[in-house]
Design a protein that fits this description.
Length: 151
Amino acid sequence: MQTATFYIVEEESLEDTQPGFFAYVHYLCRHFTGQGAKIYLNAADRVSAEAWAEYFWQVDASAFIAHNLVGEGPKNGTPVEIGFDGLKPSWNRQLVINVAETHATFAQTFAQVVDFVPCEEKAKQLARERYKIYRQAGYQLQTIKIQHTES
């Protein structure tokens, strides 16, 4: 069964800031890779993908997760592969974490999708559109309010 989980970002929460959101996504990546998942992190564009990769390099060594941009890294990939629209993720990815606001066309290639509902109204509407796309694709959907967790 394919599942899509939308994490709801609360207004004025730590995750409603760029550093807090990056830290929360990193926390999710650590959580899922700890369970053995191979993750595709879908960013908005090349600049955003590179910013995510740089963030993963800057975390404390005890929280480091091996990662690479699509087309880089070892032959069989790392636990987290970072890309953006127009790039094809490695064949061995089971889960996508979507940090882009407008892309959901990749969804059917993954058993599990993680997405976000931001606070800003336009971004929230785009999340609703992605939710509809996942529902039409037959995903089992759930929403979760983010509970702040230290990364």
